[in-house]
Write a structure and sequence with these properties.
The complex is a heterodimer of chains A (331) and B (506).
Chain A (H helix, E strand, L loop, with lengths): L1 H7 L14 H24 L6 H26 L8 H17 L4 H24 L4 H20 L4 E2 L6 H5 L7 H19 L1 H11 L1 H6 L4 H27 L1 E2 L7 H11 L11 H20 L4 H26 L1
Antiparallel strand pairs in A: 1-2
Helix pairs in contact in A: 2-13, 3-8, 3-11, 3-12, 3-13, 4-5, 4-6, 4-11, 5-6, 5-11, 8-9, 9-11, 12-13, 12-14
Chain B lengths: L5 E12 L2 E12 L3 E6 L5 H8 L7 E6 L2 E2 L5 H6 L2 E4 L11 H6 L11 H14 L16 H14 L4 E5 L7 H16 L3 E5 L3 H7 L2 E6 L2 E2 L3 E2 L5 H9 L17 E9 L7 E6 L3 E5 L6 H9 L6 E6 L2 E2 L5 H6 L2 E4 L3 H4 L7 H6 L7 E2 L2 E2 L1 H14 L16 H10 L8 E5 L7 H16 L3 E6 L2 H7 L2 E6 L2 E7 L5 H9 L3 H8 L1
Parallel strand pairs in B: 3-8, 3-9, 6-7, 7-8, 14-21, 14-22, 17-20, 20-21
Antiparallel strand pairs in B: 1-2, 1-4, 4-5, 9-10, 9-11, 12-13, 12-15, 15-16, 18-19, 22-23
Helix pairs in contact in B: 4-5, 5-6
The chains are: A mainly alpha (331), B alpha/beta (506).
């Protein structure tokens, strides 16, 4: 009856007016653009080795690893679940699983798929706990400790050598001159952007992040979306783990040191609002490129680990405060 | 009274948010000991003026004088020092603290060390002033009713010794009886010589307690009008700048078949089993105060608080919703009384808001179909007369009335059999209110069955075809709205001793 009623109304004309990108997002893109260009220019002027092909490949590869996980993380932030703090640990565990499977001659295809399924499951379990009402930060912190514990136990804190070159191209290959990780990063960014903008799942994720009770009252599957977002995040961590194990030919429980804070920094400086419901994976991707450039710049200028952590930590704190103030001014 | 000196004088006040001018040269004066009502549709500028006086917003230009001297109100604490105190729409009472602690909260304490009894001593006079003399200052604030908390908030202002009190829609969340408590305190305070600025949407309150009323329209203030001798019609006319044709649309002449039948329903909030029937095209109004059980029925059918016994039949099918998603799939649309909490997605576009419950209908193989999305949202917006050029803006940027239209309109997409609404016009201005009534009636005329629960008795009598009155978890009476007097409705929902008599009458 209502359908009939609606049918009788005038047919729709042109497309609905698009919203202007929020000021915050435009600002974030601007900052990222300026930041990346500035780092490249200053780096190139101060360190001759910065703009060499070899170094740029290192930067791009590092950015890709941070970026792949940052894309997964952006879905979690957008869905209103803040961050998953188990990124580093899940990537380590996935690297170990992959190394074990390769060492025991399961073959590349089986090892690859089995590792990704394992990583997806590890993400899904965390998503399940969160959808039952677990706090996302505490839950992922706990699972992070758990994952690292398992990785330490099974590897006995020793290097697990792959013992085969079958996976090497995954870590060091450069199809068409671009590292495999970067192909994965770029393709993943585009897919993640498309999924968020154009699919029902993406729309649900945005709505749930924007207002969870309203999403529930509108009949959206809130718990399911959290689980799917965490599962995708798990797959991203799995990809990072596999690519590192393939690159170095081994897995060890202290890989990826500082990766989680880098990813959090990428999402934050990318300008994705912590309260959820807004933002795009592209912002996280740009943030990751910026962070990786910054890390490399600091390495070449022989910043110690302490200084590098100090800088990244300050950046996260500043981004948090900066966007919070911006929010208040807009409100 | 005309000779009274102005306590507060505002002149040439302007304020813009980006390209939107919220105040365009506002003139405003407040006398000692008067209650000045501020009326205006949402976005007319009254909230902005009040926030500037409270030090929460800064004007672009203009003068503010308090007691004849220019005042500097750049922060809430400067405003307090100047003698201006402000009660917001949203309560700022902290439930975990005691009543006394809440009153002293944020104030300057003479002594850094205090005891429960010294605090109680200090706040007792203020509690008495607001009519809460019988409340123990050591009680946890969370145990108070909403009206009592509102009064505690006023007591807090009094403890600051403010000479100008600003109350911004203090009664928006209260029932009629509770409103009475707040308004009587306001009258008393004015008699004591304090000046009160009273922002409200309820015209009844203006006549009850207002001495004068200042009307705002499109960021401009008008000359204050004395309330004495003013008629409701004149006031509404001034408010809207045009004559309001009729607040409530004509009722239905005939109904269709039974859509919903509730039999011996027991649910959280109901003390006795309830039976009701609702026909296609009928609007059933549930009247009752907070906790009377009027909302309990709506929530049981909507799957928010599933029933514990009894049966619900929707179009002959047994309905036993475990949760809201379940109810929605059966064709039940539910709009709660708090649209900010669960009615709209403030940071998302209107298009996305309107299509949220019917997202399955605009997706093909998991992909959002842009054309279907646009058609669906335009149709819903057109039905509720939402400006199509705003479909791309964020829902949170709309006025309260438009937000409510979005919160209601999004449900048409699921083609519901029944629409359940709690407080259909809470926080909605007079003009938009009439519009929402009209849209609800239009939906009923198309055959939709509608139930709404409301604490606004006028609304229940004006909009509903059938009225059910509730008191303490049970139905007092069910009757056609045309056969119910306002006074008997009020009696049904307020006085326990009438319960038995009311039942006999029914």
């Amino acid at each position: 009856m209502i359908a009939g009623l609606l049918g009788r109304l005038a047919p729709a004309g042109g497309p609905a007016t698009e919203a202007q990108a929020p000021a915050r997002r435009r600002l974030a893109f601007l900052f990222m653009g300026i930041g990346i260009v500035a780092l490249l220019v200053i780096g190139g002027l101060t360190t001759p080795s910065f703009l060499t092909l070899e170094n740029l490949l290192v930067v791009i590869r590092a950015a890709s690893i941070t970026g792949i996980i940052a894309i997964g993380m952006s879905y979690i932030t957008i869905s209103g679940n803040l961050f998953a703090l188990s990124a580093e640990e899940l990537a380590i565990l996935a690297a170990c699983v992959f190394a074990f499977l390769m060492r025991d001659d399961y073959g590349l295809a089986v090892s690859l798929i089995a590792t990704l399924i394992f990583a997806a499951g590890s993400g899904a379990i965390q998503g399940g706990v969160i959808s039952l009402g677990g706090d996302p930060i505490i839950t992922t912190l706990a699972f992070g400790a758990l994952f690292r514990g398992i990785a330490s136990l099974v590897s006995d804190n020793k290097n697990i050598l792959l013992g085969t070159k079958a996976a090497e191209w995954l870590g060091t290959g450069r199809p068409l001159g671009v590292p495999t990780q970067s192909w994965a990063f770029v393709i993943l960014t585009l897919v993640a952007w498309f999924v968020l903008q154009r699919t029902r799942f993406g729309r649900q994720l945005l709505l749930i992040g924007a207002n969870r009770p309203a999403a529930r009252a509108s009949g959206l599957r809130v718990g399911q979306a959290s689980i799917v977002a965490m599962t995708l995040f798990g797959v991203c961590c799995g990809m990072a783990g596999i690519s590192a194990a393939a690159q170095f030919g081994l897995a060890v429980a202290n890989l990826f040191s500082g990766l989680t804070i880098d990813v959090v920094a990428a999402v934050l400086v990318g300008g994705i609002p912590l309260k959820g419901g807004q933002g795009s994976p592209v912002q996280a991707a740009l943030g990751a490129v910026f962070i990786a450039l910054l890390q490399n710049f600091m390495l070449l200028h022989s910043f110690t680990t302490g200084w590098r952590m100090f800088v990244i930590g300050s950046l996260v704190a500043l981004a948090t405060i900066g966007f919070h103030l911006l929010q208040k001014r807009q409100a | 009274m005309d000779d009274d000196p102005l306590v507060l004088r505002v002149s040439g006040l302007t304020k813009s948010y980006g390209s939107v001018a919220a105040l365009k040269g506002v003139e405003f004066g407040l006398r000692r000991g008067e209650v000045m009502a501020l009326l205006g549709e949402n976005g007319a500028g009254k909230s902005t003026l009040v926030k500037i006086l409270a030090g929460l917003e800064h004007p672009d230009a203009g003068q503010i004088e308090i007691d004849g001297r220019p005042a500097r109100l750049r922060s809430p604490s400067q405003s307090l020092q100047a003698g201006v105190a402000y009660v917001t729409q949203e309560l700022s009472i902290i439930s975990a603290l005691s009543v006394a602690e809440n009153i002293c909260l944020g104030g300057r304490s003479q002594n850094p060390i205090w005891t429960a009894s010294s605090l109680a001593q200090r706040v007792k006079p203020y509690l008495e002033l607001v009519g809460l003399g019988d409340v123990d200052p050591a009680t946890t604030a969370g145990k108070l009713s909403v009206a009592q908390r509102q009064l505690v908030e006023i007591a807090r202002l009094l403890s600051r010794d403010a000479k100008i009190l600003i109350l911004d829609e203090p009664t928006a969340a209260l029932s009629d009886v509770e409103i009475g408590k707040v308004t009587s305190v306001v009258t008393k305070l004015a008699k004591e010589g304090r000046s009160i600025i009273y922002v409200t949407h309820r015209l009844g309150e203006v006549f009850e307690i207002g001495d004068r009323v200042t009307i705002f329209r499109n960021g401009v203030s008008f000359e204050p009008i004395a309330v004495k001798g003013l008629s409701v019609d004149t006031l509404i006319e001034r408010l809207l700048g045009r004559r309001l044709e009729q607040m409530f649309p004509a009722r239905a002449s005939k109904f269709g078949e039974v859509v919903l039948s509730i039999h011996d329903l027991v649910a959280p909030g109901l003390s006795h089993p309830v039976s009701l029937e609702l026909r296609a095209g009928e609007i059933l109004g549930l009247a009752g105060q907070l906790g009377s059980g009027a909302n309990a029925i709506v929530r049981a059918v909507a799957g928010v608080a599933p029933p514990t016994a009894g049966s619900i039949r929707l179009r002959g099918q047994r309905l036993n919703p475990r949760d809201m998603r379940d109810a929605i799939r059966s064709g039940v649309a539910y709009c709660s009384d708090d649209r900010k909490r669960d009615g709209i997605f403030a940071v998302r576009k209107l298009t996305e808001n309107l299509t949220a419950p019917s997202i399955d209908k605009i997706t093909v193989a998991g992909l959002i179909n842009r054309r279907r999305e646009s058609e669906m949202s335009r149709r819903l917006a057109e039905f509720f007369e939402i400006n199509l050029s705003r479909l791309g803006s964020q829902a949170g940027k709309l006025s309260g009335g438009n937000q409510q239209k979005v919160a209601l309109g999004k449900w048409l997409g699921i083609e519901p059999s029944i629409l359940l609404v709690e407080e259909p016009t809470r926080g909605v201005d007079v003009g938009a209110r009439a519009e929402i009534y009209r849209h609800l009636r239009k939906l009923a005329d198309q055959g939709l069955a509608i139930i709404f629960a409301s604490s606004d008795n006028q609304e229940v009598l004006g909009l509903a075809d059938t009225v059910a009155t509730f008191f303490r978890g049970q139905i007092v009476r069910v009757s056609p709205a045309t056969q119910m007097e306002h006074s008997s409705l009020l009696r049904d929902v307020t006085h326990p001793e009438n319960l038995a008599a009311g039942r006999e009458a029914a």
